[in-house]
Amino acid sequence: MWCTGLGAVTTFSLMVALCCSQFVSQPEIKTEDCTRKEHPIVPYRVLRLWMSEFSHSGAKDFSQLAVDLNRGQLIVGARNFLFRLHLTNISLIQAAEWAPDEDTKLSCQSKGKTEDECQNYVRVLLTSGSTLFTCGTNAFTPVCMTRQISNISEVLDSINGVARCPYDPRHNSTAMITARGELYAATVIDFSGRDPVLYRSLGNMPPLRSAQYNSKWLNEPNFVSVYEIGRFAYFFFRETAVGNDCGKMVFSRVARVCKNDVGGRFLLEDTWTTFMKARLNCSRSGEIPFYFNELQSTFHLPEQDLIYGIFTTNVNSLSASAICAFNLSSITTAFNGPFRFQENPRTAWQPTPNPIPNFQCGTLDEAGPGQNLTERSLQDAQRLFLMNDVVQPITVNPLLTQDTVRLSCLCVDVVQGAGDRLYYVIPGFGPRG
């Protein structure tokens, strides 16, 4: 179990793994703690007893983690470094320096970037069998490398990191490798940061991307996570809302694409034809609901088909956080419902019937050049992708709300208590870990 949305920290404290494995199972679980309105808050000095710390000279921005259970190790990505650590106590197994060369740094600085920006910030760290797939900003010249997971200094392959890793370390991105070896990445594809993309590469499927320079598809997104679930890849992010008639707001979204999508012919060539997105609702109920609009982190619990998320208020408002959980069936229901469509910029957004209300990534049966296309009409795919219905959480109110703080990361553990009763333990972490 691991959390998304891990913020960059200077000293790496392994509170995630230990909080999810040791801490939750050590104290006695009291039923009244789970049912009372005010949830217990554990101070840092208590958590410190179950924490281990790791630091390394010259390393900072510890921002990416990958667990290798088979070898009992934790892979950590930091600025200009990769580390292999023991899972039990996060002591060092191996350190590998991964810094840009001097020419790349000088080229970066000549384009107006600072010395601090012109370093290599690890932004993709994925395990795949006996290999480790890593991508870094590399002084605004993204690069990806495949390494031996048992010897991270051994580079097996190196490829261009554009569309797989951001140029700027401040841009949020996410990525995953599917069981078939395809890389799905959500990142920014250009130096200026104006072209966000959902991109598929590697593997045996053709490369595909989201529509370029189309704010109705993606509008100033901050990407959070991506999961492979069944026939789909699900992306979670927040963005400046389109389809909202009440001024500029940020909404949380879930988007999905079919893994068997091969793009269009003539229309939507090299572009997703199955892209759809829906709003996620996390709010306090009331005559006028209070919305937590900005998704920060998610955790997928596949045994329960649940997606947990941390949502916060806008940075310009009072600080508050909430945890909501969404059933995969509720997400599917929203994608099976009507679309929201705007005929032209001067008209309001209106509900539009869904031509294929139970779309399951079916393909055309006809022989010929279009036989691998999904059964979704390319004309519909161009204009119908925003769902009208909102994805509702499993509870009317958030599972947890916390005022005066903005949580940024969570994980979920299931603990068996007395009488075989299951308890869901959800540690949340602030911006400093």
Automatic annotation (TrEMBL):
One of its GO terms (molecular function) is semaphorin receptor binding. It comes from the Eukaryota. It holds the Pfam family Sema. Residues 1-21 form the signal peptide. InterPro entries: Semap_dom, Semap_dom_sf, Semaphorin, WD40/YVTN_repeat-like_dom_sf. It is found in: Secreted. GO terms for biological process: axon guidance; neural crest cell migration; positive regulation of cell migration; semaphorin-plexin signaling pathway. Keywords: Developmental protein, Differentiation, Disulfide bond, Glycoprotein, Neurogenesis, Secreted, Signal. The keyword Cytoplasm does not apply. One of its GO terms (cellular component) is plasma membrane. Residues 39-433 form the Sema domain. Its main location: secreted. The keyword Nucleotide-binding does not apply. This is Semaphorin-2A.
